[in-house]
Amino acid sequence: MRCRIAPPGGLGAGDCTDRGFAKISLNQHKRHEPIRDAPPGKLFLINNQTMKREVIVSLTRPSLPRGARLGARRVVAIDLDPRAPAAVTYNTRANSLESRIEVRGGSWYEPIGSAKAVRGRRERFDAIIAVPPQIPGPGVFGPRYGGPDGTRYLIAVIDGGPLFLEKTHGRLWLPAISPANPEALSRRLEERFKEVSMVCKTERPFAPDEHESMKKGLFDYLRTLRSAGRSDFKEIGSRWSIFRNLFICASGPRMP
Question: What does each C-alpha distance from 66 to 74, 79, 138 come to in angstroms?
Fold first, then answer.
């Protein structure tokens, strides 16, 4: 099964923007029905039929796992926060979804198995939804830190995906931001998947102070990464900048 996106009007159709940023070598989705102003954590680009009756794993921090609301037969929700299982359980009961959602505590793929299959068998899923931290920084500054170039956890999700996706139709849904080394991200995706589609791109304005409030000197660090070709954003005057949200679907997992 290929990656599909939401139908026009389903979430507020509009034009995705692309205003002269550095080229990002991800394939454009041919059947482009874009979504306007969708923030990175919102993976509702997915058609309601895309996950109908499927089994998915959600590597996010949602109050209610998204896949269940999209018709998935079964959702395994994973979160490192020890408070998450109780919160998700409460919400699933309130929405009568407890029979379809299983909550597991742990980091990324650890709760569903290791790289080595147990007794020759490994749990596999029709789709993986992941929203990892991905803001670059010279050192840890908080929960949004994504490593020196922002790809530390993005790469971990991409590398682990083929081990836990169904070989014939498994898909990885992944939002990324253009400051997080998009060229390196593109290369890794194409190494691990046969088909990589840029479902949509949207612009996100920000002020330097937004990053400076996380860690002093962070905006200058982003400038350094950009000069080295490892980050992509535009400065608009002295007070504002713009980066892009990149909505990616990768299918056809390549077995390691």
Answer: 11, 14, 33
CB atoms within 10 A of CB 105: 15
The answer to whether the beta carbons of residues 182 and 141 sit under 8 Å apart is no
Cα 250 versus chain centre, distance:
11
Q: How far is CA 177 from the centre of its chain?
A: 9
The CATH architecture that domain 27-204+244-253 belongs to is 3-Layer(aba) Sandwich (3.40)
Q: Which residue has the tokens 């505590």?
A: 105
Q: What is the pLDDT of residues 125-154, one digit of tens each?
A: 888 988 899 999 999 999 899 999 999 999
Contact present, 248 and 196 (Cβ < 8 Å): yes
- pLDDT (tens digit per residue) in 202-238: 999 999 999 999 999 999 999 999 999 999 999 998 8
Q: What are residue 56's DSSP bridge partners?
A: 75, 127
DSSP-assigned letters across all residues of 96-124: T-TTTEEEEESSTTGGG--SSPBTTB---
Q: Assign 54 a pLDDT band (cuts: 50, 70, 90).
A: low
Please state, in angstroms and rounded to a whole number, the distance separating the CA atoms of residues 151 and 140: 14
CB neighbour class for 139 (10 Å; exposed up to 12, middle 13-18, buried from 19): exposed
Q: Look up tokens 């949509």; give the residue.
A: 200
Boundaries of every domain in the chain: 27-204+244-253
Average pLDDT, the chain: 76
Local structure of 76: helix, strand or coil = strand
